[in-house]
Request: fold
Amino acid sequence: MDDTRYDTCVIGAGPAGLAVARALAERDLPYTHVERHTAPGGIWDIDNPGSPMYESAHFISSRTRSGFGGWPMPDHFPDYPSHRQVLSYLRSFADAYGLTGRIEFGTGVRAVARNADGSWTVTRGDGRESVHGQVVVCTGAQWHPNIPELPGRFTGEIRHVVGYRGEEALRGKRVLVVGAGNSGCDIACDAARAADHAVISMRRGYWFIPKHVFGRPADTLAGAGPRMPMWLEQKLFGALLRILDGDPTRLGLPKPDHKLFETHPAINSMLIHHLRHGDITAKPGITRVEGRTVHFADGTSDDFDLILLATGYLHKAPVAQEYFGDEQHPELYLSVFSREYEGLFGVGFVETNSGAYRLFDTQAQLIAGFIEDSRRGLPQAERFTRMIRDDRPDLTAGLKFVASPRHTGYVDSGAYLRYVTKVAKAMNWPTEGRPPSVAAARHEEVVS
Reply:
């Protein structure tokens, strides 16, 4: 039988694409890997055109909670690695598993199309076509900026933070950062240090979680004690944050309109520091702009030279948008499997409240297990096909996430991992990759 029917095309060689490539390679499943840039790393390569990376960027999940299975981040990395360290980690991962040499670099994808027989045609940017049994779209979720319309006309400079690289762009300017996501908080802290005048505007209040609690990375505390019901965890950790940070409204921050953990976590210790020192001012949402003057919902106004929109990204997948549907949150089973189109998968589109790499690894293992068992005609593959179509698990852990586009389809990381681990166990699939030596030994066993 022609192996082309079973070949899987992996589009993108950022962290999600590398996790998928390793999972397929571990099972000796044929795959084709394409990447539009010249090396692995995706958004973490600050030199990649269109990357949202900036010089002060660091991981918001800690080193010990962020590596792929079988390839932990090095012990000499700090608790929160810089973007350059993350990039070096990803490239060492690709090299250790023999993935780098199998990637077609400098190869963009123009389109993905489903054929009448259920196979997929992938058209590269230069027009070349190839046919595959499956396609895994790993093009990333932070390349397409969400740019809201501001009411009125601003005569200064206004741009999305996707083009921001470092503090030099802020020096000598009066700067307004709009949005309090993790990038927005980082860049607001850059502005607090470098700009002549710095303000951060946010429409709603947030819970700001420090990067370290009791001297430990905050995310390592989640599994340190007995498992508690979510309402109790919210209550206890919320009380701890109030002890550590006090009343946020005293610093001009809006009071959170939701319970802790009901929005994507803002992991930042320095914004509170700069607010307390007067290096930056917090303001509510914008009501209108006139010339260089910005009017805020509290009735105040201020003049600015530069407005930076830290307003997030759309989860666009232009290579296959007609099959994924919603640009904000594709409707995929377990945030991976297309319910409507067999053989179409996406990794890197999950929105959750913890480190993503472990989830990417698990998702990649599910894809590889499903493809292998489908190829072998095993009954669990058919059972999983039915689950893709019909299973709609509640992965919120009881949290009532705020009503915003980003939180559509949002999942709690703990609930997600518990559920997919249960599914993988029932299917006899692993949930993480192996160390390189183990993967190589299995490869030798299969090919010998």
Remarks:
- The longest strand covers residues 109-114.
